[in-house]
Write a structure and sequence with these properties.
The chain is mainly alpha-helical. Helices cover 88% and strands 0% of the residues. The longest helix has 25 residues.
C-alpha cells in the first residue's frame, strides 16, 4: 500500500502532465499560433494568456458547431 505522500506525488505529476498536454494543444492551434506570431508575444505573455487562448478556442468551436 502506498503512503498518502506517494499518492499525492503521483497525482501532482499526472496533473502537471495534463496541463502541459493542454498547453501544447492550445499552442498548436493555427489561429492562436498566428496571433502569437503577429503580436510578437514573449514567452511570459504567452504563459500568462494560456487561459484566454483556451477560452477563445472553446468559444470558436462552440460557435462553429452551432
Amino acid at each position: 500500500m502506498e503512503s498518502v505522500g506517494q499518492t499525492l506525488s503521483h497525482m501532482n505529476r499526472a496533473r502537471q502532465f495534463n496541463y502541459e498536454d493542454l498547453v501544447a494543444q492550445i499552442l498548436a492551434d493555427q489561429e492562436v499560433a498566428a496571433f502569437i506570431q503577429a503580436q510578437s508575444l514573449s514567452e511570459q505573455e504567452i504563459r500568462r494568456s494560456i487561459s484566454k487562448f483556451n477560452q477563445y478556442i472553446s468559444e470558436r468551436n462552440r460557435f462553429l458547431l452551432g
